[in-house]
Give the backbone structure.
Amino acid sequence: PAGATLRSACVLLALVVGFRAAHVVASETPGLTWRPWLTTNLSLHLVILLAALLPAGLSGASRRSLVSTLVESVIAPFAPVTFWHVIVADYLTSMAKAFSDLQLTACLSPGILAHYGDFYATEHAGYTRSTALWEEHHAACASSRANAVMLALPFWWRLMQCLRVYHDTREVKNLYNALKYSTAFPLVYTGYLRKLEPSAWNDHAFVAAAILQSSYCFVWDVLMDWGLPKCADGLGSRHGSQCKSGFRETRLVFGSKAPYFLLCAFNFSLRFVWTVSVFGGLPGRGYGMFIFEVLEIARRTAWAVFRIEWEVVVKVYSQNAARAIAPEHETMSLKVARDSSSTGLYDTDD
């Protein structure tokens, strides 16, 4: 329900803002040496994890459904794949940077916690600020193989879902969809090489991988996930009608075509920007990356709305139209048979 979603979003926003405010205030308070940056980050992760696992309260039924779907997405292809699994797993691909940041937190924390004993230092004697410790360890953690694996992990889960659906349905389009998610792996690898061994060749390879991955995903969004360039009658040649290529006629979210063209432009630009910023190794601190991540979530949400619209058009409107056409075809066939019988068209006696 919309109310439950809004309430949960407000609670999560309040948690993030609250812990961020605690970090800012503690960092500006002289004499505090309990590592506010690390403590508030780890505490926020722990609170969100506990909130997700609570048996009741905070939209319990919806939250349990989400958690179970997340688990089933992670263990793909050993779990069934529904449309809800697809939406959730696609959101996970947009959160690849968050998975990368989890690895960074796990990698940086031991180095900072090793200095936690500085709490007992008097007058900051021997105290090293968390910012300095972050800068000391960040380069090694960000260029590690574990960081690259975490970036690629959401795409691996989605790839496994596509293969599971192909196994169940034998529809070839699922192999092309799996190929789409496979294009993320060269992108992750070339981004990893750029951090590990900076060179012009690695830069060119990364740009080529970024263009391939973003272009493939954009074309798939427009053609397959949104079904925008469709036959004028909305049903196509599957019913034997003459089909002319054009913009999809059945539109539920907006009646006009203009918002859909704006959606394509919005999706195209943000796909490339997000790909270069996340996989290209844009520094993770500051508000720049935060803005990129917010824009990516906005893009993914717009994608989900129109992906659901296309699913409704295919599963509801097209099927209803097919049911309406079928009796008409049967009536015409009977009429032709009667007319043919009366004129002796099907007589075999010569």
About this structure: Residues 21 and 123 are 25 Å apart (CA to CA).
